[in-house]
Design brief:
Length: 561
């Protein structure tokens, strides 16, 4: 018999500023879900009050203490039916009088297991809600540990990562997130994928004071970042789903695998806070910002034929420069795929045949091409250094070779032949912008990109051999949350499990979603995409800082079940 626990999402049309109506409705819908056998029941963010308030005085009459009258009603329901409940409300702190955007988690004995306070109030919440000052909420349940976070806290990777490091294997996200505003599903999918956990996102429907949520969705997302179920309704609805269990608890293996692969000793820069400075550009010593043109060059290397592949790469660079000129642009920066000189490598024997020293034939040829065309080129290749082999990205420019980055987070395919890089993540200053460099599967680890973003990278260049079409959403999510431009140059094609999915991407970041641009190559075929970018768009970064960095940068003590 299949092991699972039934869950319910109270996808309610929350009435603005009508607490009594909302409370009555939520209690009725929650009881309906409990009677239908749901054991974990989640309601939206600010489900008691509605969302849009412009001052403390406006929302204060709706705020409650925790515990308080509303939690007493929900506790009685939880005790009667033996269920776990989570719901959102404006909280008044008795000691200080401060108001918080909060959530309560109640256990099957009616006990308050804990409360969450939103760490990053969004939009006009900042006119009434103090910033959350509690650790990320994780509590033990009969099915394993459960984490609770609120809406836009899932836009940032840190709260969900901290919950996973506290061994939560199910994350509840209470949301009031309309789809036209930073569409949330890719961020929720990213949080599940990068932590290897299940995620239940309970959104709402209806209209608020000045917000239309009738198209908003609720989700169950699995540890691979795949949407298991998606729900929408014009009116109040209770949606049912089920989370698989293994040995009566939430699955732990995906989280163990993902968290164990982290390299916290290389993530120390995520704890820096240079963008709190009044003049972060001066503090970081960033190059003067100038618009620049980039190209993502996608191609299918010939297997283990470096000499021919380097000639193909040079020819593609020529063609990309010509295409830019036809658009009256000067190509400044081009990115080629990971392992571009050899194609995928299926073991140490193949890697030994195709690996080169750096500098070596490929580096020298592409450095000459960079000088000839007066542009910067990033590409990936198998590097030989004595007896060691590395999956390496190289940057060359008009002045020759500028540096190389050895991949830190090896894919299973890489691990069969490559040694992981052990140095910091590297950024380079071009005349127009600061460039960060990663390789393919590094993007699965948000700390990699944030390490470079915190150092002021305007653009992230990623040569890739990406094989999972279903996780391509992660590229755009990573660029948006780290507030930088992104160029991913992917291979396409291959054989068997070594099949790259193409769809190379240029993502132009802007603070307002409607101003963002992205262009992508098809899934197959040699192709290049070209776009003009501005570094200024990536220089107003803001990060979620008030978190437990000691836990975030820990490893071994957080990997037990």
């Amino acid at each position: 018999m299949k092991e699972e626990v039934k869950a319910a999402l109270i996808h309610a049309a929350v009435a603005w500023k009508d607490k009594e109506r909302n409370l009555k409705k939520l209690l009725a819908l929650t009881e309906e879900a409990a009677r239908q056998g749901a054991k974990i029941i989640v309601s939206p963010e600010l489900a008691l009050s509605g969302y849009s308030f412009h001052s403390r005085s406006e929302i204060a009459p709706l705020a409650e203490t925790i515990p308080g009258p509303a939690t007493e009603h929900f506790s009685e329901l939880a005790r009667r039916y033996g269920v776990y409940l989570a719901f959102g409300l404006p909280e008044r702190d008795l000691k200080t009088g401060l108001l918080y955007n909060a959530a309560v988690f109640i256990g099957p004995q009616g006990e308050i297991l804990g409360r969450a306070r939103k760490l990053a109030p969004a939009f006009k919440e900042n006119l009434w809600s103090a910033r959350g000052n509690l650790p990320v909420l994780v509590r033990e349940t009969a099915y394993g540990k459960v984490g609770v976070i609120i809406c836009a806290d899932a836009y940032w990777y840190k709260p969900a990562r901290l919950a996973a490091l506290k061994r939560a294997r199910l994350l509840l996200v209470l949301a009031n997130w309309p789809p036209h505003c930073h569409p949330p599903e890719n961020f929720w999918r990213a949080r599940a994928l990068e932590n290897g956990i299940y995620l239940l996102a309970c959104n709402r429907t209806g209209t608020d004071r000045n917000m239309d949520c009738t198209q908003a969705r609720s989700y169950l997302i699995d540890p691979a970042g795949s949407i298991v179920q998606e729900f929408r309704a014009d009116e109040d609805a209770v949606f049912y789903t089920a989370i698989p269990l293994e040995g009566r608890t939430f699955p732990s293996a995906p989280a163990q695998e993902r968290l164990f692969a982290r390299c916290p000793e290389l993530y120390l820069d995520v704890a820096l806070d240079p963008f709190s400075s009044l003049e972060p550009e001066m503090l970081l010593g960033l190059p003067a910002p100038q618009p620049f043109t980039v190209a993502a060059i996608q191609f299918r290397p010939l297997p283990l034929r470096p000499a021919e592949n380097r000639q193909i790469m040079a020819s593609l660079l020529d063609r990309a420069c010509e295409a830019a000129e036809e658009r009256r642009l000067k190509l400044d920066l081009a990115v080629l795929p990971e392992l571009a000189t050899t194609g995928a490598l299926k073991g140490r024997e193949e890697a030994s045949q195709g690996a080169e020293a750096i500098p070596g034939p490929t580096a020298e040829l592409l450095a000459r091409k960079a000088q000839e065309k007066h542009l910067y080129v990033v590409w990936g290749m198998a590097e030989r250094d004595g007896e060691s082999l590395f999956n390496t990205a190289v940057l060359a420019g008009p002045a020759g070779l500028l540096g190389k980055y050895r991949k830190v987070h090896l894919s299973p395919l890489d691990a069969a032949w490559a040694r992981a890089g052990g140095n910091e993540f590297l950024s380079f200053d071009l005349p127009c912008a600061r460039v960060g460099v990663l390789l393919g599967s590094d993007l699965l680890f948000p700390e990699s990109a944030e390490s470079l973003a915190k150092r002021g990278a305007d653009i992230l260049c990623v040569p890739a051999f990406w094989t999972a079409k279903e996780t391509l959403f992660l590229w755009e999510a990573r660029a948006a949350e780290q507030q930088l431009h992104l160029v991913v140059a992917n291979q396409w094609g291959g054989e068997g499990s070594c099949w790259a999915v193409g769809e190379s991407l240029i993502f132009s970041y802007a603070r307002h979603p409607e101003k963002r641009q992205k262009i992508a190559a098809p899934g197959a075929g040699d192709e290049f995409k070209i776009l003009l970018l501005s570094p200024l768009a990536a220089r107003q970064k803001r990060f979620l800082e008030m978190v437990d960095y000691e836990l975030l940068l820990s490893k071994d003590d957080c990997l037990q079940k």
